[in-house]
Amino acid sequence: MKKLVFGAGAIITLMSACAPQAQETLTLSGLNPVDFQTEAHGQKTQLYTLKNTAGMEVCVTNFGGRIVSVMVPDKNGEMKDVVLGFDSIADYINVPSDFGASIGRYANRINQGKITLDGDTIQLPQNNYGHCLHGGPKGWQYQIYEGSQLNDSTLSLVMHSPDGDANFPGNVTATVTYTLTGENAIDIQYEATTDKKTVINMTNHSYFNLSGDPKNAITNDILYVNADRFTPVDSTFMTTGEIEPVTDTPMDFTTPKEIGKEINNYDYTQLKNGNGYDHNWVLNTAGDDSKVAAKLVCPATGIALEVYTNEPGIQVYTGNFLDGTVTGKKGIVYNQRAAICLETQHYPDSPNKPEWPSVILEPGQTYRSHCIFKFSVEK
Description:
single chain, mainly beta, Beta-galactosidase, Chain A, domain 5, nine-stranded antiparallel β-sheet, five-stranded antiparallel β-sheet, globular, disordered N terminus
């Protein structure tokens, strides 16, 4: 779901290199909080560290509301960082990516960047094959959330998005609350309100590699998706409007299987169009966030990830556009399929498909979305 044009970097001014640097303790994942301190338009960025009693650690920056690292134990009790990202705020600013981001206003694609509300057609930024992807090149992943750490395990991030932000209507206030539970789960609550009719569809864009080493591809990991149907895409990654069964296709993960088992079967048009898996699955869970929407297991480490959500869909993206040009944490080069994204969401281009679950938010209403990433070990 990539190929973004990054435009926010020019407005960021890094703190002077000659300024005195505080001596801060490194995080469990090896990050230095000082490396995440900068300022833009009077807003400061920093790194927040969440911990639980089980020893798990999650680091988040308010630049784009991004999860930077997730430390969980493997089957031998060794702590592993299971998400891709960067070691400093400078790389997040200067290298185009969605690593770990809280996406808004609209996750995924809107066809030709056009929406119609009450008869008025609105042109949004076009930054991906003529479509609007993830809110455009200055989406919330490139903006600064107001951060407030409520306790050792809870972080509140607030975005004040003005009317006309990327041409989306309405003054929107959105809150993303990260809670690291005692059960080794990252609980993400999204809320938003508006003063004018608008559309909203938020998600988290973490890139998971449960081996803890992104030099390893995720193709040997075992994936389960609780969905009998998916939304096909054309050659520009745009949904066609159809909903098709996964039965007897490479899209069928109702029985857990290796991600790489059929991923290179480009004789199947959908894998060719997506350059691998980059599709929205229509979940069977019917908005019940107590039911498993998807599950990922790394046989090498035994680390398992279960996803729960009240959303109707989940985008599975297998890092198809990672191409070795980006170097992440600890100097590791991110090659194709070094990670998988499991993005809970409403379906792509829903504003233009009224028969699909609505993404319209009216004044007086509150948008709510819920996602849980729960980690465990299978020995």
